[in-house]
Design brief:
By secondary structure, this protein is an alpha/beta fold. The chain is built from 10 helices and 13 strands. Helix 5 links the parallel strand 3 and strand 4.
Length: 331
């Protein structure tokens, strides 16, 4: 019996094969699945639309089921197509990352790391000349971002991050902890009456992170917590000055614009060189945060990565000594 003229025809049944699928057409499948449009996929791949269509048809024939529903002006993933897309996305990302790593290893030795901007500019970059002098044949690539990077799928080798003890990623290596101290520029202190007690900070502009209340654990490193700890919860300073980044807070402090409750590992060099002065040294504040090194699972065996990690731990030991921190806790 023939179907009625208005009855929609079902997708043709495909022969189910049992042999492994060849990989040549997966790129076309991924491009169409991302765009849900054959023309856009063809543009991405620098192919003709008919060539992409033939690749998808060949892939569907190999898989044994339709992967797309073709409508007049739209393309839609079938259930099987959606399952394949979810599986293929991380698999191809890992493949591409591995290819990049192989290409790098065939040429120059490179260490790629990710961290946040203030840590890079205040702690890492000032120390890098020492590593480059010892290892002139190793290139360094630094990606500064607040976004977490998946070291399993990206071409990044290392991550430097801060987190509370117990919440760090698995196998993270602790570099150092953190205390907060009240700091000012020397000339600002010289131009004002001496600061002898916590309540004396009210005579100054106080500098702080403007988004601390939006970030987990960051309320623990605010002036308000310092006020609470030292029994001056109702104190109001002359004025507030807010910035989004630790580097900006320190720059404003160096310029004499007020007092900052600064993160000691990031300003230890400034204190040692006399660029900043710690006021009320007996009134430091413990922070729950620590700084961690995370090594990508595909990177730790490379000699250049091992050399850089060894150097990082040496620098971290110097920072612990400068801030008076005892030996690191076992993660």
């Amino acid at each position: 019996m023939k179907p009625h003229a208005d009855q929609p025809s079902s997708p043709p049944a495909l022969h189910v094969r049992t042999r492994p699928v060849s990989v040549g057409n997966w790129r076309a499948f991924m491009a169409v699945a991302r765009h849900l449009n054959f023309r856009a996929a063809a543009d991405e791949l620098s192919l003709t639309q008919s060539a992409v269509s033939r690749q998808i048809q060949a892939l569907e024939d190999e898989v044994g089921v339709p992967l797309f529903l073709r409508h007049t002006r739209a393309v839609e993933l079938t259930t099987a197509g959606g399952q394949l897309f979810q599986t293929l996305t991380p698999a191809l990302e890992r493949l591409d990352a591995t290819v990049r790593m192989v290409r790098q290893s065939a040429g120059r030795k490179t260490v790629a790391l990710t961290t946040w901007a203030s840590f890079a500019s205040m702690w890492l970059i000032p120390r890098l000349e020492d590593f480059q002098r010892e290892h002139p044949d190793i290139d360094i690539r630094i990606d500064t971002s607040d976004n977490m990077v998946d070291l399993e799928t990206s071409d990044v080798d290392l991550a430097l991050r801060s987190n509370v003890q117990g919440a760090q990623p698995a196998k993270a290596q602790r570099l150092f902890g953190e205390q907060l101290c009240v700091v000012a520029s020397p000339w600002l202190i010289q131009s004002m009456p001496p600061i002898r007690a916590p309540e004396d900070v009210a005579r100054f502009t106080l500098i702080e992170a403007g988004d601390a209340h939006r970030l987990p654990y960051f309320e623990w490193i605010t002036w308000r917590r310092w006020f609470d700890v030292y029994g001056i919860a109702r104190l109001e300073p002359q004025r507030w000055l807010y910035f989004n980044y630790a580097q900006q807070i320190v720059q404003a402090t160096l310029a004499g614009q007020g007092l900052a409750l600064a993160r000691m590992p990031l300003i230890a060099d400034g204190l040692a060189h006399g660029d900043l002065v710690e006021v009320l040294p007996g009134h430091r504040l413990d922070s729950p945060l620590a700084y961690w090194l995370i090594v990508g699972p595909r990177s730790g065996h490379r000699p250049e990565i091992q050399a850089f990690c060894t150097w990082l731990h040496t620098q971290a030991a110097a920072t612990r000594a400068a801030t008076g921190e005892s030996l690191p806790e076992i993660a």
